[in-house]
Design goal:
By secondary structure, this protein is α/β, with parallel strands linked by helices. The chain has nine helices and 13 strands. The strands form four sheets. A five-stranded mixed β-sheet has the order 6-7-3-9-8. A four-stranded mixed β-sheet has the order 1-11-2-10. Strands 4-5 form a two-stranded antiparallel ribbon. Helix 2 crosses helix 3 and helix 7 crosses helix 9.
C-alpha cells in the first residue's frame, strides 16, 4: 500500500485523513518513509516533536516610564534565548543529544500601535526529542521561565538604580509560572461558562494554531491572574517519537544498504508524518510498527537553496526502495 501525503506543513492533514480511512484490523508490519535525509543513509525509528505555547502576562506602562512596568516582551525574548541557546531542553539518549528547541514565533499581543510597553506576549517553542516524558519537559521549561522573569526584573531594577535613581520604585509582586491545567483550577466555572465551552465550534485547521492563546487569555481573565505571570501549555500539532524496531523492514534495509556500503542509523532526526502511524491508528507508541526512512538526500532543508542529490534521488534510490520492499516481503 502506498500513501502520498505531501502536506506535512499543513498540519499533516493528508496523513491524518489516510490513517482515519485505514481498517482498524489492518496488520501493519512496517512503514517505509520517503522523507528527506541529510546523507545517503537510512534511519530506523524517528524522533518526536512537541510544540509548547508560552503566554506571558506583564504590567503595561507608558513608554516614557518603563521602570514602572513589567514588559512582557522582555520576558518572552529572554526565555526564547534561554530555551534555544542552552542544553536545558535538548533531549538526550545515552551519549547522543537531540537538537535544542527552536522559537517558531515570538511576538507581543497588542491590537495595534500604542505607546505602552507590552502587556502580553507569546512564544512558541518547537522541541524535538527521543521520547522524554511531556511532564519532564514542561517542568524544565517552567524553571527556565521563572528564571527569565526574575532576571528581567532584576536587570530592570538595576538599570533604574543606575540611570534613574529618583524614579518611583515599581510595584513588587512575586512572579507566577503555571501550567495551563493549574491555571484552570483557579477558576470557579459557572454553568454558563460550561455551556459556552460545550457549544463552541471546533477549530478550523487553518486557524487553530492560535486557539491556545485565546483560551489561556480567557482563563487567565476568569482566574483574575495578575502579572508578572507565565502560562505554559503543550499545543498541537505533536509527533510521537518512535523507537527503532527489529522487524522485517529494518532487517531488509540493513542487508540491502549494507551490500551498497551505506549506513543505517537510528532515530530519523527530522519531523515526519510516519510518526503519526504510531498513535493515530494503533493507539500507543509501544505498538508502533517498524518505521524506516529511506529517502532522497540533500542539503539546506527548508532553506533558500534546499536541494537533493539528483543521481541518488532519481537513479539509485528507486532501486534501493524496490529491493528493500522485496526483501522485507520475502522474509
Amino acid at each position: 500500500m502506498m500513501i502520498a501525503a505531501p502536506d506535512e506543513e499543513h498540519l499533516s492533514a493528508g496523513m491524518n485523513t489516510a490513517l482515519e480511512s485505514l481498517p482498524r484490523d489492518l496488520e501493519l508490519h512496517g512503514v517505509l518513509n520517503l522523507d528527506y535525509v541529510d546523507a545517503p543513509v537510512a534511519y530506523r525509528g524517528a524522533m518526536g516533536k512537541s510544540r509548547f505555547g508560552v503566554w506571558v502576562l506583564g504590567r503595561p506602562g507608558h513608554a516614557g516610564a518603563p521602570f514602572e512596568a513589567v514588559d512582557a516582551m522582555q520576558i518572552a525574548a529572554d526565555l526564547a534565548l534561554r530555551a534555544t541557546l542552552s542544553p536545558a531542553l535538548a533531549d538526550r539518549l545515552e551519549d547522543r543529544f537531540g537538537p535544542p528547541p527552536v522559537a517558531l514565533r515570538l511576538r507581543d499581543l497588542k491590537w495595534g500601535y500604542d505607546v505602552q510597553t507590552a502587556g502580553q506576549a507569546e512564544l512558541e517553542l518547537n522541541v524535538v526529542g527521543f521520547g522524554r516524558p511531556r511532564d519532564e519537559t514542561l517542568g524544565r521549561l517552567r524553571v527556565l521561565a521563572l528564571t527569565s522573569v526574575r532576571e528581567v526584573l532584576r536587570r530592570r531594577d538595576a538599570l533604574r538604580g543606575e540611570i534613574a535613581p529618583g524614579a518611583p520604585a515599581p510595584e513588587s509582586r512575586e512572579p507566577m509560572v503555571l501550567r495551563y491545567d493549574e491555571l484552570e483550577k483557579q477558576v470557579t466555572w459557572g454553568i454558563e461558562d460550561v455551556m459556552a465551552a460545550a457549544l463552541r465550534p471546533p477549530a478550523q485547521s487553518a486557524f487553530f494554531d492560535q486557539d491556545w492563546v485565546a483560551k489561556i487569555r480567557d482563563t487567565a481573565r476568569r482566574a483574575k491572574l495578575a502579572g508578572p505571570a507565565v502560562v505554559i501549555e503543550e499545543v498541537p500539532p505533536s509527533y510521537p517519537a518512535v523507537a527503532p524496531a527489529d522487524g522485517p523492514l529494518s532487517r531488509a534495509t540493513a542487508r540491502v544498504l549494507g551490500a551498497e556500503g551505506l549506513e543505517v542509523r537510528t532515530y530519523y532526526p527530522f519531523i515526519t508524518d510516519a510518526s503519526l502511524v504510531a498513535t493515530r491508528a494503533w493507539g500507543a507508541v509501544e505498538r508502533a510498527p517498524d518505521i524506516v526512512t529511506l529517502g532522497p538526500w540533500g542539503r539546506d532543508a527548508h532553506g533558500l537553496f534546499e536541494r537533493v542529490h539528483a543521481p541518488y534521488a532519481f537513479e539509485k534510490l528507486p532501486r534501493l526502495i524496490a529491493e528493500v520492499a522485496k526483501a522485507a516481503l520475502l522474509e
